[in-house]
Amino acid sequence: MTRLTPAGPTPAGPTPAGPVGPDDAMRIALAASARVHGTTSPNPPVGCVVLAADGTVAGVGATAPPGGPHAEVVALAQAGERARGGTAVVTLEPCAHHGRTPPCTDALRAAGIAAVHVAVADPNPVAAGGAEALRAAGLTVTVGTLAPDIVDAVAAGPLRAWLHAQRTGRPHVTWKFAATLDGRSAAADGTSRWITGPAARARVHTLRATSDAVVVGTGTALADDPALTARDVDGTPLARQPLRVVAGLRDVAPGSHLDAPDVLHVRTHDPDEVIAALHARGVVDVLLEGGPRLAGAFLAAGRVDRVLAHVAPALLGAGAAALGDAGVGTIGDILRLHVARVELVGGDILIDALVGAAPGAAAPAGAADGQVVATVSAPRPADRSGSTPDGSGP
């Protein structure tokens, strides 16, 4: 039976008035980090909560854009004197080095913090060591000792791409596509608007807004003329926009959406060269939107880390496949993914899967066969024309 996994910790709502424990404080910190996701690269989107000595929330902070204060400093400033003798709850180990800003370990010690709870250790050898530095200064520090579902949610949430980049030295790549149940991304005549419904398309625009770069091949650019911008339901551009990238040797069409000075054109078919060009620009989180040949090339090169498949309960029977040649010549080479999450988004199914996970890898805490986690929005309405055209979106 297909495993449909739970959504994880409940997102934090209004800040509680009474005392809270480290687990609940970390949920608040995670929600704070989510609000700045996509605005901090190449720095990590970190959330921090400062609890006063009586356990009440005294301050909440998140990482500012590069050059601005880190999450701990923001939360400490909000807490003021209430931080003295209190506890800091942070999604990522506080930094112990002096970069654009002073070490967060110094700020925590100066504020009189007595204890620190960290969800995830910092894998960056330059910034790591914060936990040990704080312990040496007499603070009580715990790392990764919270409820497993919270630690999992932090590592797989806003910090996912940054942690990946630190551990591998390259940006994290998510391949997003939309297809019918029979794997088609377009009809026999090339039309593709729309395979999935408004709720799925809205989800993609949110994803673009939290990504550093959105990449398509020249084939998709020429066939669909996508805008690759992040927009709200009425087509208005969102405040935060990703770097738009075209990969391939051909020119884009003059006057098209991607014929613009702020579009990066990487003239290569080599996924590693595309990734290197993005890495040089400080890109951490890449959204690969197509087309089939480019996605196949990235998969064949082992450069896709996550797959977001928006599957419509519909059939075409003929037309373009969602994926081109991915280097699989025999069933023994099949690329099997680890399903991390399944949702109903409007009337469509969203499968969130990881590439390269070990066969039989454990599902997130609380998963159960046959469990549906959530239904997002209402079933698809009959009228499917209420969104700004963009052939790269689902």
Write the layout of secondary structure elements.
Elements: E1 3-4, H1 22-35, E2 47-51, E3 57-62, H2 71-79, E4 87-92, H3 104-110, E5 115-120, H4 130-136, E6 140-143, H5 148-155, H6 160-168, E7 172-180, H7 198-209, E8 213-217, H8 218-224, E9 243-247, E10 263-266, H9 271-280, E11 285-290, H10 292-300, E12 306-312, E13 337-345, E14 348-355, E15 368-369, E16 375-376
Mean pLDDT equals 87
Helix percentage: 10-25%
Strand numbers in spatial order across the main sheet: 10-9-8-11-7-12-14-13-16
- Major beta sheet, specifics? 9 strands, mixed
Query: By CATH's scheme, which homologous superfamily of the largest domain applies?
Result: Dihydrofolate Reductase, subunit A
What is the N-to-C succession of helices and strands?
EHEEHEHEHEHHEHEHEEHEHEEEEE
Given the helix and strand composition, which structural class is it? Answer: alpha/beta
Strand residue percentage: 15-25%
Keywords:
single chain; 394 residues; alpha/beta; Cytidine Deaminase, domain 2; Dihydrofolate Reductase, subunit A; 2 domains; nine-stranded mixed sheet; five-stranded mixed sheet; 23% helix; disordered N terminus; disordered C terminus; multifunctional enzyme; EC 1.1.1.193
Structural account:
Substrate binds at residues 192, 208, 228, 231, 289. This protein folds into two domains: 3-160, Cytidine Deaminase, domain 2, CATH 3.40.140; 170-376, Dihydrofolate Reductase, subunit A, CATH 3.40.430.10. 23% of the residues lie in helices and 22% in strands. The protein has helices at residues 22-35, 71-79, 104-110, 130-136, 148-155, 160-168, 198-209, 218-224, 271-280, 292-300, and strands at residues 3-4, 47-51, 57-62, 87-92, 115-120, 140-143, 172-180, 213-217, 243-247, 263-266, 285-290, 306-312, 337-345, 348-355, 368-369, 375-376. The strands form three sheets. It has a nine-stranded mixed sheet, sandwiched between helices. It has a five-stranded mixed sheet with strand order 3-2-4-5-6. A two-stranded antiparallel sheet has the order 1-15. β2 and β3 form a beta hairpin. Residues 1-12 and 358-394 have low confidence and may be disordered.
